[in-house]
Amino acid sequence: MDAHRCEPDAEPATEPGRAVSEITELTTPAEGVPPVVADPTALRAAADALAAGTGPIAVDTERASGYRYSARAYLVQLRRAGSGTVLVDPIPLRGRLAPLIEAVGDQEWVLHAASQDLPCLAELDLRPSSLFDTELAGRLAGYPRVALGALVEQQLGYRLEKGHGAADWSRRPLPADWLSYAALDVELLLPLRESLEAELRAQGKLEWASQEFEAVRTAPPPGPRPEPWRRTSGIHRLHAPRKLAAVRALWLARDELARTRDIAPGRVLPDKAIIEAAQTQPADTTALVALPIFGGRAQRRRADVWMAALREAAELPNSALPASSPPSDGPPPPNRWADRDPEAAARLSAARAALSALAERHGLPVENLLQPDLVRRTCWAPQEDRSVTGTAAALRAGGARPWQVALTAEPLSAALAATTEPAS
């Protein structure tokens, strides 16, 4: 796409969108809470209703990530003009959702923060052919608050009832007030989509949004994270490889228990317990359960499991201990650049300044203008060809969308020329 076609037609307003003079509390769905679809007969009727509707389909899910190991959907909410709202319990219907898949598969889906819901929907073979992400649309339009409730209030004048998003949605039967909350999550997604689309069109950003939505829709599923145990909260306090090995062993033992029992890992053993045990290095089970954080009944019952993991770590040869720092295929943290490569630090400083000014000019977050990791990688080890054309090619290879390349290639090319060592 040509650069001039990606430029907005008009500068965004300082405060995008229209002001709403009156706010209405929305505590129950306008049409009431529909019954939960949980058997094939009800599913067929719901699918027929959705197929008979018109326009895009609002979609949302409820998970139980704070309670369960899996990230599966325990409720799927859908709404379409002319069809009303449908609540589907996918657990008893797993593997038998073909009527629903057929009814919604070719339509545009409207989701809020789609990347959070698409993986669990894909597990059910529910995949959109196109989508509109209202959270991402809000970011591109320049709204400082892009939670669903904030956007609905700003754009439509309704205040959604808060409540049960972090609840245990694996619970059965689901309480009536939870189902009302779930139905409200899709109640206004379709008018919100229309309002945000109009805002993006007015700002000349609708094509940008279309490219971003497609990137979200077609993103590959995330692969396994290398050394996920290094994300244990509080691990920054530990540096000795032997203690890091203890964290790793306890994390792996916990993960196995959590996975086999489908319980959230933090409910099996809190991160702070892992760090405390790795730091203290108890000599035996008695010393382990003497730690206050291991004094509960559940931890005493599993004390032998945790102690076995600690002994395994203690007996590892030095050659099998983890490195003090995590492996990385990317550049070092930016705060180390000035010492390791002053020219790269100068490039990054110039790039950040140019991109910040560009993002402010166009009224969107700088991280949506260009992914920070791609900026760092480009500045740390730039291509030999640092012209606008060469920089554009590097950005495309790094996954930047056409609108991002058109806006940022020129200022980044200039930043890559900033190779003079900064003054001390």
TrEMBL record:
Region described as Disordered: 1-20, 317-340
SMART domains: 35EXOc (SM00474), HRDC (SM00341)
The keyword RNA-binding appears for this protein: no
Top-level class of the enzyme under EC nomenclature: hydrolase
Entry's Gene Ontology BP terms: nucleobase-containing compound metabolic process
Composition skew (Pro residues), residue ranges: 324-335
InterPro entries: 3'-5'_exonuclease_dom (IPR002562), Exo_C (IPR041605), HRDC-like_sf (IPR010997), HRDC_dom (IPR002121), HRDC_dom_sf (IPR044876), RNase_D-like (IPR051086), RNaseH-like_sf (IPR012337), RNaseH_sf (IPR036397)
Any Pfam family hit: HRDC
The entry's keywords: Hydrolase
Domain of life according to the entry: Bacteria
Gene Ontology MF, one: nucleic acid binding
Annotated EC: 3.1.13.5
Name recorded for this polypeptide: Ribonuclease D
Protein source organism: Actinoalloteichus hoggarensis
